[in-house]
Design brief:
Order of helices and strands: HHHHHEHEHHEEEEEHEHEHEEE
Number of helices: 11
Largest sheet: 6 strands, mixed
Shape: elongated
GO molecular function, one term: exonuclease activity
Low-confidence stretches: none
Number of domains: 2
CATH superfamily of the largest domain: Endonuclease/exonuclease/phosphatase
Protein name: Endonuclease/exonuclease/phosphatase family protein
Organism: Rhodococcus pyridinivorans
CATH architecture of the largest domain: 4-Layer Sandwich
Number of strands: 12
Keywords: Endonuclease, Exonuclease, Hydrolase, Membrane, Nuclease, Transmembrane, Transmembrane helix
CATH topology of the largest domain: Deoxyribonuclease I, Chain A
Length: about 325
């Protein structure tokens, strides 16, 4: 009898604790937090939201009607927040398809240049954005033959994580390095046959582990850059945003004409970081964004010795005028 009593009590405690955990996950998803602990916790909001399902099961088994209703409402809201990632958007228009790849290569000691180039070759990549690009990284990728595949480039290498680069199959013009950021933020125009000029952005906001307010401010400034981009010019953005879909600051980038390629393709949360620790990557912080086009496929590849997986999107651009 005593054991049964404690089991019932334990089930109730589990149900309510799991439900509360799910509610915390929702709060982290919807809140525009700038306090570092909350920003970091929001990276795992989807994991926390899953607690509501556990709470629903535990409270339903105990026939706690009110508790089950609360847990069910939280679980349903959690599903609603994540569902867009799993429902593909129908590709519109008849413009050309291009393949865009983004890779964070972990500066000098990171990804094997031969592997990066093989990924570009195997995926038939048209546009490549690279974060954490050093001068030694440029030399390694050049020796591995990247320039033969993507002969046009705009590179601003830096020390350690600060450098950024764009490689392109198509001629590049109107290159810009945006001032006032900790890392390099680059933009250019690629002349894509059948689409005309396509804006290419390579972004890398500072991670919130250093200063969450600086991270939030940089994401806001990147949003301003995208908001100022010409509405009639297709655009692609590759970057390690140091943010997941559960960060409101990242979703703000998607409030205008830009969309997340993973969401458009219905690929779900494609987790890319970290890959240099035991177990699978835990968070999806590497993204490709699309303006005036639709991602019809989205995937990731392992980059041995790097701490991120690369991401690749097949994008159908809206037709040029």
């Amino acid at each position: 009898m005593v054991t049964a009593k404690w089991l019932r009590l334990g089930s109730d405690v589990l149900g309510w604790t799991a439900t509360a955990t799910g509610a915390v996950g929702l709060a982290l998803h919807f809140g525009r937090w700038s306090a570092q602990p909350l920003v970091l916790a929001a990276s795992g909001a989807s994991y926390l939201m899953a607690g509501a399902v556990i709470g629903l099961i535990a409270l339903a088994v105990r026939r706690r009607l009110f508790g089950a209703l609360v847990a069910g409402a939280i679980a349903a809201t959690a599903v609603w927040t994540q569902a867009p990632l799993h429902v593909a958007t129908a590709a519109a228009g008849a413009g050309p398809d291009i393949t865009v790849m983004h890779a964070n290569i972990l500066f000098d000691r990171g990804a094997d240049p031969e592997v990066v180039v093989s990924r570009v070759r195997d995926r038939d990549v048209d546009l490549l954005t690279v974060n954490e690009l050093t001068s030694a990284g440029v030399d390694g990728l050049t020796r591995a033959g990247l320039d033969e595949l993507l002969p046009h480039r705009y590179l601003v290498p830096g020390e350690l994580a600060s450098g950024t680069g764009i490689w392109s199959r198509f001629p590049l013009s109107d290159t810009v390095e945006h001032d006032g950021f900790v890392f390099r933020q680059l933009s250019a125009l690629a002349d894509v046959p059948g689409a005309g000029p396509v804006a290419v952005h390579a972004f890398h906001p500072v991670p919130p582990v250093f200063d969450a307010q600086d991270w939030a401010a940089e994401l806001s400034r990147l949003q301003d850059i995208l908001d100022r981009s010409p509405a009639d010019v297709p655009a692609v953005v590759g970057g390690d945003f140091n943010a997941t879909y559960d960060h409101a600051q990242f979703r703000a980038l998607l409030s205008g004409r830009f969309a997340d390629a993973a969401e458009q393709a219905g690929a779900g949360a494609v987790r890319t970081y970290p890959t240099d620790k035991p177990g699978p990557p835990l968070v999806a912080i590497d993204h490709i964004l699309v303006g005036n086009g639709t991602a019809v496929a989205f995937d990731s590849d392992d980059l041995p010795r790097a701490d991120h997986r690369s991401v690749v999107a097949r994008i159908r651009l809206d037709p040029g005028e």
